[in-house]
Each structure stands twice: as structure tokens, then as C-alpha cells.
Predict the structure.
Amino acid sequence: MIYIMRGLPGSGKSTWAKENCGNSVEVFSADSWHIVNGVYRFDPKRAGYAHNECFRAFVLSLQAESEYAYRVVDNTNATLMELSPYVRAIEAFGCEYKIMYILCDVETAIKRNVHDVPANTILAMQRNLLTEIVPPYWRQEIVIPG
């Protein structure tokens, strides 16, 4: 099963994946390409590169037999432009998936986000999440944590 996470930074996407997938999980996150010497260092100049590498690694994983019970795309996927390539790749390979939209209010997300995403960026992401509705034939489940 493949889970595509969707939600604000700090909403609980990574926590949900850890709690629901156990140890047999392969995680794909653009954040992985912002780690320098074991420390997360976001560089906006590398954001496009990080997302491209994340997607490339994911597609390569789809092409190979996986030893994992779960694959998780752990990005915000706040826009359909970010989300749709993953859905199309999954569908092209005939895999089962669910988009897990983790609901979270903006204030909580701002307090909990571990990557110091600016409040105005989180507000813009929230606007996208509320206005860019996924097609009804995509398999999305809305999760209200707690």
C-alpha cells in the first residue's frame, strides 16, 4: 500500500505514518535532500532539486520489487500540481494508494512544525489545501488527529 501524505507542516503527517505503518515502510520526502551532515538545513534554492529527487526515487521504487509493506510520500502536497505526479505514477504502475489528508488548524501547525516554515507560508499552504480539491475518483481519506 502506498500512502501519499497531504497537510500542513506540523500537522502530523510523519507521526501518522509512523503510527500506522510500523517498521516495514519506505519513506520518500523532499526533506531528505535538505539534510547536510545529519542536520536539516532548508535551502530554498535547492527546493526544486529536492522535490525532483524525491519523485525520481519514488518512481524508481515503483519500478522495483519492494521489500516494504508500505511506501509513504511524506511531503505537504498542498497543491494539485505537487500531488498529481505521484498519483499518476502510482496509477501507471497499477498500485494501491490512499491520499491521507491530515487536517490541522494553522495555529497548531505553526507551533508544531519542526522546520521553521514561516507563518505566511503555512497560511498560503492552508489556502491551497482548502481551495484545490482533489478529484472525487482519487482515493483520499481525511484524518482528524486526536
